[in-house]
Structure formats: structure tokens, C-alpha cells
Amino acid sequence: MNHDPNSKNLPVESIDIAAARARLEQAGGKRFWQSLQELSDTPEYRDFTHNEFPANSEEKTSGGIDRRDVLKLMAASTALAGLSACTKLPTEKIVPYVKPPEEIIPGRPLFYATSMPQPGGAAGLLVESHMGRPTKIEGNPEHPGSLGSSDAFAQASILDMYDPDRSQAVFYEGRISNWSAFSAAMVDVRTAHAPKGAGVRILTGFVTSPTLAGQIRTLLTRFPEAKWHQYEPCGADNVYEGTKLAFGKPLNPIYHLDRADVVVSLDSDFLTSGAAHVRHARDFSTRRDMAEGVASKLNRLYVVEAMPTNTGVVADHRLNLRASEVETFARQLAAAVGVSSAAGGAAAPGKSADWVAPVGRDLSAHRGACLVIAGEQQPPAVHALAHAMNAALGNIGKTVEFTEPLEANPVNGTESLRDLVNDLNAGKVEFLLILGANPVYDAPADFEFAAAMSKASLRAHSGVYNDETSELCHWHAPASHYLETWSDTRAYDGTIGIVQPLILPLYDGHSAHEVIALLTGEAGKSGHDIVRDYWQTQRSEKGASFEALWERSLHDGLVAGTALPVVSASLRGDFAHAGSSQSSSADAGALEIVFLADPAVGDGRFANNSWLQELPKPITRTTWDNAAFVSAATAQTLGVTQNDYVTLELAGRKVDVGVFIVPGHADNSVTLHLGYGRTRVGSIGNGCGSNAYLIRNSSAMWVAQGLKLTKTGKQYSIATVQHQNSIDLEGHPGEDKEGEAAQRRDLIQVATLEEFRKDPAFAQKSDGANPNPALSIYPGFKSDGYAWGMAIDLNRCVGCNACVVACQSENNIAVVGKDQVEHGRVMHWIRIDTYFSGNLDNPEMYYEPLPCMQCENAPCEYVCPVGATTHSIEGLNEMTYNRCVGTRYCSNNCPYKVRRFNFFLYSDWDTKNLYGMRNPNVTVRSRGVMEKCTYCVQRINEAKIQSEVENRTIRDGEIVTACQGACPAEAIVFGNINDPASRVSKLKAQTRNYGLLEDLNTRPRTTYLARIRNPNPEMRG
Amino acid sequence: MAQIFHRSANTIARVSIFGAVLVVGVLGAALYGLALSPWYTDQHVAPVQPVPFSHRHHAGELGIDCRYCHTSVEKSSFAGVPPTQTCMTCHSQIWTNASMLEPVRESYRTDKSLSWVRVNALPEFVYFDHSIHVSKGVGCTTCHGPVAEMPLTYREGTLYMSWCLNCHRQPEQFVREKKEVFNPFYEVPGNQAEAGKKLVAEYKIKSLQNCSTCHR
Q1: How far is CA A213 from the centre of its chain?
Q2: Which pLDDT tens digit goes with each residue over A555-613?
Q3: CA of A452 to nearest chain B CA: how many angstroms apart?
Q4: Prediction ipTM score
Q5: Which helix (H) or strand (E) holds A720?
Q6: Which chain A residue shows the shortest CA-CA distance from B126?
Q7: Domains in chain B: how many in total?
Q8: Domain ranges of chain A
């Protein structure tokens, strides 16, 4: 994937900010919009909405062949096409086991509990395995960090495991070597550096694995002069520095969002990033439940942030402040809630002055039931202020608790790496072992790590990919993926999960445990024995009772009772002097830059994962790239517009990147996501986006001042799906334009709590809704037995994208690549539609996850000439791939634009390594076939068969669709709507329930529960 | 004006028109015949297997229950093909030197699986489930034919969609009592018409014909 600027024509990117503003002012009132393209109302945009695909889409092919060539080829192939059905089925082989393993029943999956190690806290998972092949990841219901849900990263990690670009061999000086040579080299290191290990350095990520930490400690006791460094490019350094300022020691905060009535986020995207975000989203969403009798529990969320995030979308009040101004605001707010030492200092910047008093009053009115959370990119002072506010408001011990850090040996990663670089430059390092980390790519630019590293006389790297760091090391040893590894890891609250492998290493990888064992003189000891032996030394249980504990921990996916104990935390006496303000020096007119971990590829570790690369990022819905995100006003000031290719210069270092305009971004600020611009990760990730680490300095890891932005004069196309698959709200062009306002159908129904109390059924009263079913010329549809339906609660959805990737994994959905994304051919069966309302500068934002509506009067079905899409007796709008001839009439006739067409052979049929990953219960689609959401019909059928075999009916909740299973906010509920006691029926019975485009009389089975906002009455307007 | 064509052109035209129709018709019929022929459907064709396993001997003459080898037929979509170990439960004791069984012993010795040719194969886009059919009173021999009389195993039905639908549309003609499901010598009783109807009601058999029943 090499994405050169200027290399392609730009399909739909013309934006006219002035026109957009004018249209917004003219529209007035509640008007939802999706993109600047829509507001600019360009002909290209109209083309995208009125037509199923843009007019030129047929011209564009993927392999440089033009349409005429395809037609020529087709002339020949059509002649033979009729005969293709006459091929005989190829001979299949059945290869049974020689000795059958226990528990495996061929054709039925097994589920194993494991944990996915992530910096800052692991995700507890259940992994589906088909005869030894892991195929799908679910959350572990017993794990406190997931409670049965998961996130996009965990869902996509299955693809990482099978990735054929992973490192597959040991390398020595760029040539293929083998493990015995590597072991011998490590033994040499051990003898050469005996007895004290002078000159030995080990660099890892943040280690939460007790076993690995124990091993490294053993190594350090044997070699007392060796040193262990830890570095994470997006680690929680500021969190620990903040608690050091506030409490005098590094502590791990645990937020209980289910207990908080009022939440203030200081630039924190706590709902979808950070270690505990899955748990946060679950806890938060329980306070957004509007079922009968619980509405009074509705919480209120204030968000102050620069770059719009999912948390900002969910907020009741959102304020865009530059990241550097958050501290001043925090100081004022702290003073307002009675943190005495915070008084004084600069006045709150701009609009935030109006916020201080009412937010302060709201917090003070909810003492002990409110919460202030600071973002990881905010300086320690802001974290300390947040803690001080929580202390002053009596929240500590109630909505926030503290434990000792999760890391066995907590350090400040940047400082730890700085020490290592200093030692390297001083020539003190002879042997450097890098486990998992990739500092050549992601270290701060001013460290010039690659040059420093070259001063170590022997360098070894163990990683899942043969990456930028491996290239400059003497040795590279492939690491095993976590799904192939024995290990252990801590979750956000300290609970330890045993990582157990689902499969033997596919690519000859060995875990960090096994590499360290080479140095501790335990060469050849298996990962299983290392982890188990460590636990045997840690527990008082011996013999059979240890065996029982071990088995139980493996089965449950966690070691019971290992959550870290809550420690008491009280503010330091000298808190007032703590934390000087770095941002007070920021010039309000100057441009600042904020570095954030990318919402899709993280800090770069998922860069070779095509599911995540093609995952539309929140709000911007960009794919395959990062960009310089700016506000519309700043773009105008700087004289740049969408897709301009610009040079960002910071402290003399430069990087080129495309510009993308984000409604709601803070002015005079540029957000640049980390994790892109990789050069040596694999065929997917290489060359995608621009490397933000090139201009990131250790002095300002997250927020930096003095950015210079200059145009290069080139253009760079950024593939965004935001204006694609937009539901056409205006009917056909040329129709009565006077009726436009009446025709405009609000796809998002939203009210404030006050409005909702006055008129609970507001959502069902939109124009033209609920037409008489008898108006249809088709006979009414009725299901007698099961009638499947889905309800999606917009009040709960946090837009985390877990459902999109879960669906992709469950249903073998292909990726199409950047070029095809630009032409509107993304294949996702469920998409998160994003709507804005209000002005360009700080709009309200809304999410709407959109799977197939499974219409009872489905427009797609009537137009299929070959009966490939039909209606099942249970109300499913079925798609039969083997019948489809690819006319695309159905998708042309779908008002919701949920049908996806395989313009090319998007499914990878050539890469054998990926065969094992696919769900064996879902057909892998070929070229020329339509596909769409089926409510996971394979899961429905499985449950139906199981219930019939057991001679009973399907229980409510027995069928969980992939999107529902992944959703951390429990926003998606599926079930039998003929059963009035089912959860889905109860949700649909709520007055908030409404269908999309109901005036078309499609009678959708997927309906939505309107969003209720809970604004502070003091802060109107 | 003189005629351009000779009189005989009429005959030639007639013959070629009807001839063309005839040729197309015959060709169509031939193709249809071919599609139903064992050459194409593999019906009644026993493929060469690594071991010439005889269902007639094992299931018919010895009376070994189907489920002794096809263990997952009641629990899973896949009936299961026995692991080498299952063969060796008996053949480590009897016929231990038979050359015919050498591949089995070799598999057990070397831990390398036997590779059987699949007899009843469905296309990849068809999802069939044994457990539900067996538990609803569809017997093994209904689809697999007189297995207990097959010296070498062959495919009994065409496995075409029409063949599946034949039963799905009128299950009462094929259903049998649950206790007879695994009886390889089962004979359709004379009163199938009424007995079948009764069983369909008793077993709550649904005539599922939605596409997604099998295709997904």
C-alpha cells in the first residue's frame, strides 16, 4: 500500500466552508448534517447520495485495467459463463484424527478463556476455536475488565495472529538463521557478561505480567549491573506523574462511572481509549438507560477537549478548548469547587469562562457522586488538579479509587528510555535486548534512537514483526502472538488473567518468557512451565489444591482474588506548589499540535491489520491514513483546505501529511495521530499515512507549541466514508422543492430530558411516520413463530467501532483497500453513521449504528430478478449468494444503503494462511455477489437446531449477534419480537422507539431508541 | 424480376429452422441427461479409498451401530469420520496381519491421518446439519441409501437442491420413528402416508424452505 500524494484523481472532496456556514445559518433550528461535503452541496456529493454509487464508480477498477478492457474480457468469458455451472464438484478429502483429542466434537466450536495483554491493562477474552483453529474473539463475561464485551482491537487481533507478514524466522545480520544459533548467542552473552552483567540492557514495553517481571528480576539479581528499561510511546506516564503530584506516589486510578451522576472529562476519551475503556463504557451506559422507572438515574457528562472524540459525542455539553488551555480551565474549575490552592492564575480562556461557575455548581451539588477525569495526554498538573477536585468533592473512595500501579516495576517510560539513550551514547551498553518494543520507530525524535542504538556492540530484538528496530539489530527473533503464548497479565484493576494459547505458534515464534529464559539459564523451558512454575512459587496452595486453582484459573480466564487492593490516597500537604503550568506560556494565537494514539491502529502496533486500517475512525470516518486534523476556522486562517498536502515543522523536524477538516475541533490546533508512516511492518501497513513520531519530542510528548504549517502545493487524498452511503433525505432531484422541509426526515431523534418528560413519544411523531400498513399493495407480513428484531439504543452507543470489527470477523467480510474505499465500496455490514447538528465550530454530534433494517416490506426483494434475496418466515431479509448474479438492483432500491457489492474479488482466496481464520459457518463471497447483514443467521440457525434437538423453544438472549456480543455499552439488543417478555420487545415498547424512514412503509425490524440529552438547565444555548 | 433463390431454398430454410430447434432441443436434453447421469452426480459410483472399507460387512453383517464410528451425528452438523484409533480398537486384535489394513496400522504407527475420499459432498455454500435431521426422525438410509448392503460406499442421491426439497416439502413421506433412525435395514411401512403425518405432528417437524435454512 503505497499512497503517494498527487497519485490519484480526487473524487468527492471539494469543500466550500463559506457556503457550508451560509447553509447552516439559513437552515436554522435542528438540522442534522453529516459532512462538510453535504453542506457545501457539491454536485459530487449529490451524486454520492442520489445514486447508490458515484457515477464514475464503474470506470474505476482496482488493478489498473480500465472498463473497456474488462468488457473485452467479459465478452469472451460470458460465452463460457453458462458452462461454469457445469463443472463437477472437486473431490474432497476427509482427514480424521489418528487419536481424537478430548472434548473436540467435529463441527462444534469450543471456547477458551484467555487475556489480551495491552499496556495499561489486559482485555479478558473468550476465543472461539474450531477444531484447533481460533476464529472469533468474544469478551469474557467473568472478567471485570470486559464483562463479556470487547473492543475493536481485541476483535481484530485474530487477524494479527494469522497475518502472513509476521516475522517467520530468526535473522542474524539480515540473513535467516535459527533458534539454536540464537540460543547459543544468548548463552555466549551470559558467559561473556558474567558475573555482574555489566553493559547488559533490556528494553521492554510496560510489563504487567507478574511472571515476566519475576523473570527479569531474577536476571537482575544474577547480573546486578544489568539494567531494565521500559518504554511505551502512548503509556500512562502522565497519570502516574499526576498522582505523584497529588498524592506523592504513583497510583492507578479506578473510576466507577456507574456511581457518578455528574462527570467532567478534561480532554479524556475515557469511553473508548485507555486500559479500562470497555468497563467504563459499560458502567457509563448503565446510567443512560431510560427504561421505565430508572430515568431519574440519567447522568450528565461535560467534556472539554480539542479533537472531537467518542466521549465528546456522548457528552451533554462539549467545549472545544486547545489542549494547552485545559489546564487553565481546570485550575479555575478547581477553585470553583473549593480546591483552595488552585485559586489565582490566568482567567479561563474564551468560552470556557461561561462554564466554570455552572459546572462547578453542578459538581458541588453532587458531592461524592461526581467525577473529574483527566486525559492521558494532559500534563501531570491537570491530573493532579482532577485528583484534587475529586478529593475536595468527596469522591475518593466513592466514584474513584486508587490501587498500586499495575506494572510490576512502574517507571516513567520517557525518562527510562532517556536513561538508556544516555547510556548508549556514553558507550556503556554492550548488549541490548529489546523485547516487543519498537523504539527505532516510536521513540521521541530528539532521542535519535537509531544512532544511539548503533553504539551497542550486540543488539537483539524479539518482536511479532520484523520491523524498523529489527532491521538495525544483529539478531531478530520472531515473537509469538498472544493467542499462541503462555503468559499472565493484569487487567485495569489488577486482576490477573492467565494468557493461554489457542494454537501452537504458526510462525516459529517464542514468547518473551522463553527469550528471557535463555539468559537466566533455563533455555528450552516451555512458556507453560515458566508461567506455571512461577505461580507455584507465588501461591500457598500445593499439590492437588494448586492443580485445582490452576485449572480453575485457566477455565475462568482469571485468578480469583488478584485484583489489587484499594489504597487510601490523601492530597499532599504541599499540593499548592505542585505542578507548574507548562501551558500558561502558550501563545493563544500560535499553532499547537497534539499527538494522540490513533483510534484504529493505536501507537502503530496494529498498523498491519487491514481490518483496523479500513475501520472508519470516530467522527472523521477516515480510513487507511492519519491526517492533520484542523477546525474549519483554522483551515481558513491558514489558507488550507481538505486534502492539501502540508509540511508540519516542529523544532526543526518535519513531516508531510494531508489536511482534514473536522467540525468541532479546537481552533489554532492541529491533531496528528501516531501509529502511521511505518516503513517495515508488512504489505498492509507500509507507507500508510505519515509518521508523527518524526516530529515528537521528549520534552512535549503530547502537546507541543510552535508548530509551523506550510503548504507543499500537492494534494493528498484521504479516504473518508463519512459522505458515503448517506441516506438520501430529499427524494429525487427535481421533485417539489417547496416541500423539502416537510420531506426532510430526521434520522436522528433526540430530545433533552425536559422535552422527553413533557412528550415521551416525541420520537414517533416525525412527519409522515407510521403510515397505514394497508397502503402497501403487497400482502402484510406476519411471522407466527419466531420474529427476529433488533433495537439499538442511541442513548447507550459510544461509537467505539467494536461492532464493526466483530461483524467483519464473524461474517468473513473482506477489506477493499484505500482506492476502493474512495469509490464508496467499503464492505462493512454495519456502519456507524455520524451526524452533526448546529454550527461548524462546535456542533452536537450523534452516532447511529446502521446494520440491515430487515424490512418487512423490503424494497430490495421485489426487484431481484433471480430470487437471490428473499424473505424468511421469521422476518429475515435473506441473501443467497449462490443465486446472486450481481444485477445490483437490490442495493439500488435500498433506501438505507446497507447492501454491499463485491465489485472485485475482495476476499483473499490466495493467502492460505488466512483460511484458518475464517468462520466455517459463513460463505466466503466471490466477485460479482451482493452481500449484507443477516442478523448473523448462522448463529440463529445454530440456536434453532440446538433448541429443536433439545425439544424446547429458544430462550431470550440465547442468540447474540456478533455486533451485540461485542458492544461494551449494551446498545444493541436482538431477539424475538413475538415474545412480549423478551428484552428486545421491552425496548421496542419504550416510547423512545422509532424506525428510520418509516414513511416509506418499509416496516423495518431494526428500530432505534431516541437519544435523550441531559443538559444543565443553567447552560442553555 | 427473376427469383433470386431456387425453389429448393424453401425446403432448405424449413429444414434448417426445424433442424436448429431440434438440435437445440436435443442438445438441451442431452445436457439435462448428463446433469442427472452418474458421471456428473457421482451417484452409485464408489470412489477408490485408501482402505476398501465395507459398510456391508461392518454395519450389515456385524451389526455395528452407525454411531459407534459416526460419533457426532447426534450432536453436530458433521456426523464424524472415525479416527484411526476407532478402527484399531478391533483391528489391534483381529485381522492384525491383513495387508488390506496396512494403511490403518501405518496411520496409527506414524500418527499420520488416513485421507478418505468424501462420498457425500455438498458445495461450500450449503450448510447441512446431521443432528437436527437425526433427532427429527430422518433415518440414515433415507439419504445415504442401503448402506448396510454397500460393499464399497457410494453416493445414493443426487444431493441436488431439488432432491433436498423433495423431502423438505413433504417430510411425511420420509420420516420414521426415532427408534428406527439408525436401523440400516429399515423398510418403509405400507401405511407411511398416515403414519408419516402422525410423526410429523408428534416430532413438530417443520417444512423449512427458507433460503437461509441451508444457505448463509
Answers
A1: 28
A2: 999 998 899 999 988 888 777 655 455 444 556 678 999 999 999 999 999 999 999 99
A3: 52
A4: 0.90
A5: strand A719-720
A6: A923
A7: 3
A8: 171-235+409-538, 252-403, 582-720, 749-1015
| B contact test, residue of A948, A954, A959 with most B CBs within 10 A | A948
Task: For B119, name the nearest residue in chain A, comparing CA atoms only.
Answer: A92
- B214–chain A nearest CA distance, Å: 9
Query: pTM for this structure?
Result: 0.90
Give yes or no for residue A477 having a pLDDT over 70: yes
Residue range A171-235+409-538 in CATH 3.40.50.740: yes
Please, are residues A884 and A930 in contact by the beta-carbon 8 Å criterion? yes
Q: Is residue B172 part of a domain?
A: yes
Contact call for B125 and A872, based on CB within 8 A: no
Fold of A749-1015: Alpha-Beta Plaits (3.30.70)
What are the cell numbers at B10?
A: 424453401
Helix (H) or strand (E) holding A566: strand A566-567
pLDDT 10s digits, A297-356: 889 999 999 999 999 999 999 999 989 888 888 888 888 888 876 555 666 677 778 888
Same domain, B199 and B173: yes
Residues B125 and B60 both lie in one domain? yes
Kindly state whether residue B207 falls inside one of the protein's structural domains: yes
**B60: which 3 cell numbers?**
450389515
Q: Which residues of A touch B115 (CB under 8 A)?
A: 93-95
Give yes or no for residue A289 having a pLDDT over 90.
no
CB contact under 8 A, B117 and A934: no
Are the C-beta atoms of residues A881 and A907 closer than 8 Å to each other? Answer: no
Three cell numbers written together for A85:
455451472
Nearest CA in chain B to A83: B31
Of B84, B204, B210, the CB nearest to A872: B210
Q: Taking the CA atoms of A570, A576, A578 and A581 in sequence, report the sign of the dihedral they define.
A: positive
Q: At what angle do helices B84-91 and B102-110 cross, to 10 degrees?
A: 120
Is the domain of B61 the same as that of B159?
yes
- 8 Å CB contact of B210 and A876: yes
Contact B211 A880 (CB under 8 A): yes
Residue B142 shares a structural domain with residue B187: yes
Which residues from chain B sit within 8 angstroms of residue A93, using beta carbons? 115-118
Q: Are residues B60 and B141 in the same domain?
A: yes
Domain that holds residue B178: 55-81+119-214
Choose the CATH number for A582-720 among 1.20.1250.20, 2.40.40.20, 3.40.50.720, 3.30.565.10: 2.40.40.20
* Nearest chain B residue to A945, by CA: B132
Nearest CA in chain B to A876: B212
The CATH number of domain A252-403 is 3.40.228.10: yes
Pairing relation of β-strands A1011-1013 and A750-752? parallel
Q: Is B207 on the interface with A (CB under 8 A)?
A: no
Nearest Cα neighbor of A266 from A233, A232, A238, A235 is: A238
Same domain, B69 and B166: yes
